[in-house]
Amino acid sequence: MTAFSSVSSAHSITGSLCEGILLEYYRYAPGPPGSDSSHVHDDYQIGLSLDFPGEYILKTGSFAVPAGTLSIIYPGELHAARDPIERRTSATYRMFYLPPDLLHGLSAELSKRPQSIPSFATRVIEERVIFESFVSLHRALAHPVPRLAQEYGVMATLAPLLLHYADTPHTLPHAPDVLPAIKRVRDYLHAHVADNLSLATLGALADLSPFQLSRAFHATYGMPPHRYLIRLRVDTARRLLAAGQPLGQVAAAVGFTDQSHFGRHFKRLIGVTPGSYARPRKNVLYRMR
User: Which residues sit opposite 116 in a β-bridge?
Assistant: First the structure.
């Protein structure tokens, strides 16, 4: 992941790149209405207007973007953004720039037939659940995220958008009976607990697409592969800590990127910090009677 930032007297922009997805966070200072010049992007632009309305101007017309909604601009589409009213307070936005192949691949899998890159029945989506899921994904991807969790998060967030709003009808594919293959993936996770695995690797192991794998694994074990791996790592860490191994070594040994991530997940699942769990205990001698 790489990151950059730009700050001027008018606004600040922070960006990060995560596996080909460009993420940007905009914060505009109070000011009069204004617009930028017309331009195009090679990617889908998914905009999240957090607290201020906006407007997009296209060759074919314009459309309003109310605060708290998600907007879509297509790859190669000439557009300009405009503030329709004066900003009396700061305005904030989050942006995704998604490679067309990413949406095309998932859309083809959901529809079970080859097709062109997806289009959408509406440019502005007001459904709160979808909006909040994109906000949560943006926040998560702005920090280092294990590949398995990142891929699952992207897929789980994009799928409802395609299922409910893409022009081409989509349905969830039937999950075949793949219990032996899913058990094979589970065994692989146990054998590679510290590795930075991908859904593509696990899917190839089970001869399933990443989407099929995630659905079948969740149906079998009650959670997606990345959450299963996190719990497996924490359970492995408990044994290492109880055996007296140092915190820093344990975090690395079970695959966490740093002690902060290790500590957060450990406390969430166990209820105490790793340091508290590993605190030396006094030896107590019991007298047999």
Answer: none
